[in-house]
Design brief:
DUF1595; metal-binding; iron; 30 helices; 21 strands; heme; Cytochrome c domain-containing protein
Length: 793
């Protein structure tokens, strides 16, 4: 059944008027629209404004919202036509929310509109602000050119080069828009971040590519276990002490033949007239005898006069103390001459590539000059291949030519070829074509008003949506074959990508922000009241919710299980916290729930802790979280100068939290929102501020019963969850809107109504499956198209 039909039927039931209004808001479906769902004509809409809406505003709003003294600075007398309303769409969207939840006009106003008046006005606003004719060509919107955020940067570097570190951890935090940190409009590029990009590019190139210079060979220490002693030698972790004549022999195994340098860090205690003498031999052949004049507390570094050419295999480096001396009658600090060796190390093979080069080096350096291959040829080949991957699209010779010239100039200045490529990589990694997702460069001329984005752009949208990283070779190949416009191909790719380990990024970044899990890091419940709470428990709480989300995603379960699932995931530590002593070990396991107490996301400790205050529960926060994340009807911001709950409840300090909230609702301007939020939050009062089940709070027995504005009553958290489950259509649309926002990197606009209708209708008819939701998003117009002429504004 289509959502519009469901909503229309709900609208006809007088007992469910509040459900109707909520459903209308969620689905942007016009309850009182034409039979075919098309928006009203402009002429008809203007007539309704003059006959219904303007009189409503005059009668119920202008007493408070007129002239220079208008409440909250909101003067409404200037709105005299439909066009004047639409021109201020964002402002009126906020006003309409107030009308919808009946906080405007306030309940203490002298005259209040009837239900019929309110419903008719809301229907008109729904049409005027959101009405779109879905039978014609739809505006797919435009996305501001998007900078890679920190997570995307780290993941892209990982997949591009295989370098195992996270350079973006030192970048400034990304701004958030519409609840997510991948929104193009807020991802600016401040000067500090550009400096960080330059530093990161240099560090990445040096880690990824072996520079092939003497300094690029790391010193390899001979480990303590590879030393043997002869004579008066003591071996410790900090080195070896020669207390008399003796020899220290270190075993070395070389994987490659070539030239090697050796160095010894050593010091001595002085006695007599000559310094300690240290003899160094390699495989029995004398390399050099050193005079060690440095004190043991300030040791010196002793290097062989020249590199030694050695075959691969096993070798022995021996260090001997030749001139032990002891004078019991000498000065106190010059009676005993001893030698102390702190470290023995070698490096090489110098002048040739080591056998254990990082995989990133082989991935980038696919050509080396010599055997008929010039520096220019190899540089162009390497840079073209790397830039194609880094820019996530084919590149032209003109684009790579300046970078190739940079590499050649570096080599001509005396640097190695590898050092030249390092500089070339740095140039690519600070290019806007790497740092930003720029679209529209590959499209041929088009005469249509809206354009389907290019194949490689679809590949990038897919990969950054589901992996927060660059496309893999499969996506690149499909783009080259021109197959990413095909719905069946996209459906197959969605399932493949969701099953891939890289989809863990979707759990961390989408679920982490949708459910506010990232905020857990900043929360610290009162340690005096909640001694059991610690950093390990906090991490396990977050992991439970992530494992739960990941299971629904990878097993392609119904998204309704986010609300009503009778299972969760625990390890032993978290299970003990929940009162379950059957789970053992640190691994998270799927666990069946006692559905008389817990079900779905809302009763998980992470969510319950997030929606609490440090010292107590917060029904208001919990109700607000449910309205935002489950019902998709976030309440407006509270009016200014409203006192906090504690201040409002000061007159009755021994009251229960329920009684204190009742006092708070008596404050002007508070009742409308709290009438909706408070019952939702109070329904979960059986859970304390860190998510433990309880029957009492102090001496007061917990009362988790309540009644919603719709008239639906409940006696326990699970009964309330059952009521919320009935609102699954609204939840599905809310989830679709959140996920579409994350996928396209912009806020959902009124003209996205048709796409959201289609996404929600199609995936709900396919069993509410997770992959069906994702597939509908990636095959939607906002994902596959953009406004004509919007080459990433």
């Amino acid at each position: 059944m289509r959502m519009m039909e469901i909503t229309s039927r709900l609208c006809k039931l007088k007992a469910l008027k509040s459900v109707c209004m909520t459903a209308c808001s969620l689905s942007l479906v016009i309850c009182l629209s034409d039979a075919n769902g098309a928006p009203l004509s402009l002429e008809k809409s203007e007539k309704q404004f003059q006959s219904q809406v303007k009189p409503f505003i005059t009668k119920y709003c202008l007493d408070c919202h007129t002239g220079a003294e208008a409440e909250a600075g909101l003067g409404l007398e200037k709105y005299q036509s439909r066009d004047s309303i639409v021109e201020q769409r964002e402002a009126w969207e906020k006003i309409v929310k107030r009308i919808q939840i009946q906080s405007m006009p306030p309940k203490d106003a002298g005259t209040l509109p009837t239900d019929k008046e309110r419903e008719d006005v809301l229907a008109w606003f729904d049409d005027a602000l959101y009405g779109v004719d879905c039978s014609g060509e739809i505006d797919p919107g435009r996305v501001t050119v998007r900078r890679l955020n920190r997570s995307e940067y780290n993941n892209t570097i990982r997949d591009l080069l295989g370098v195992d570190f996270e350079p973006a951890e030192n970048f400034p935090s990304d701004d958030v828009g519409y609840g997510f940190d991948n929104i193009g409009d807020v991802l600016t590029l401040p000067p500090l971040l550009m400096e960080k990009y330059l530093d990161a590019a240099e560090e990445i190139s040096e880690k990824a590519i072996f520079a092939n210079t003497p300094d690029s060979y790391p010193w390899q220490k001979i480990k303590e276990k590879n030393f043997q002693k002869e004579g008066a030698v003591t071996i410790r972790k900090s080195g070896a002490g020669f207390h008399s004549r003796g020899t220290l022999a270190g075993k070395i195994e070389l994987k490659q033949a070539g030239k090697y340098d050796f160095q010894i860090i050593a010091g001595s205690t002085a006695a007599g007239t000559e310094p300690a003498k240290m003899e160094v031999k390699l495989d029995g052949k004398l390399l050099k005898t050193f005079d060690v004049k440095e004190d043991r507390n300030s040791p010196g570094t002793f290097t062989m006069p020249e590199a030694v050419r050695l075959p691969e295999g096993k070798h022995v480096l021996t260090i001997s103390f030749l001139n032990d001396f002891y004078d019991p009658k000498g000065p106190p600090n010059k009676r005993d001459r001893n030698l102390y060796v702190n470290e023995v190390a070698f490096k090489g093979p110098l002048g040739q590539l080591p056998a254990d080069l990082p995989a990133s080096h082989h991935k980038v350096i696919t050509c080396t000059p010599g055997s008929g291959r010039s520096i220019h040829y190899c540089a162009e080949k390497i840079i073209r291949e790397f830039a194609t991957q880094a820019f996530r699209r084919p590149v032209s010779r003109e684009e790579v030519a300046p970078v190739v010239e940079l590499v050649e100039a570096r080599v001509k200045s005396g640097r190695t070829f590898e050092q030249g490529i390092q500089v070339g990589l740095q140039a690519i990694l600070v290019s806007p074509h790497f740092l930003f997702r720029i679209e529209g460069l590959q499209d041929p001329g088009s005469k249509s008003d809206s354009r389907t984005i290019a194949q490689y752009e679809i590949a990038s949208r897919l990969s950054y949506f589901l992996w927060s990283s660059m496309p893999d070779q499969t996506l690149f190949d499909l783009a080259a074959q021109g197959r990413l416009h095909d719905r069946r191909t996209l459906q197959v790719q969605v399932k493949r990508m969701l099953e891939d380990p890289r989809s863990e990024a979707f759990v961390k970044n989408f679920a982490g922000q949708w459910l506010n899990l990232r905020n857990l890091d900043d929360l610290t419940p009162d340690p005096r009241k909640f001694r059991v709470f610690n950093s390990r428990l906090k991490a396990d709480m977050r992991r439970e919710t992530e494992e739960f989300f990941s299971y629904i995603m990878k097993e392609d379960r119904s998204v309704i299980e986010f609300i009503n699932a009778d299972y969760t995931f625990m390890n032993e530590n978290l299970a003990k916290f929940y009162g379950n002593d059957k789970i053992k070990g640190d691994q998270f396991q799927k666990v069946s729930l006692d559905k008389s107490k817990r079900a779905g996301l809302i009763t998980q400790a992470s969510i319950l802790t997030l929606t609490s205050n440090p010292g107590r529960t917060s029904p208001v926060k919990r109700g607000k979280w449910i309205m935002e994340n489950i019902l998709g009807t976030p309440p407006p911001a509270p009016p200014p100068n409203v006192p906090e709950l504690e201040e409002a409840a000061g007159a009755k300090p021994n009251a229960t939290l329920r009684e204190q909230l009742a006092l708070h609702r008596k404050i002007a301007g508070c009742a409308a929102c709290h009438d909706q939020m408070d019952p939702l939050g109070l329904g979960f009062e059986n859970f304390d501020a860190i998510g433990r089940w309880r029957e009492k709070e102090g001496k007061h027995k917990i009362d988790s019963s309540g009644q919603l504005p719709s008239g639906q009553a409940f006696q326990s958290p699970v009964e309330l969850i059952g009521i919320l489950e009935e609102q699954k259509q609204g939840f599905c649309r809310s989830l679709a809107e959140k996920m579409l926002t994350y996928a396209i990197g912009r806020g959902v606009e009124y003209y996205d109504k048709c796409a959201l209708d289609e996404i929600t209708n199609n995936f709900t008819t396919r069993g509410y499956r997770f992959s069906a939701l994702v597939t509908e998003i990636v095959t939607s117009d906002p994902f596959l198209k953009r406004q004509r002429g919007s080459h990433n504004d």
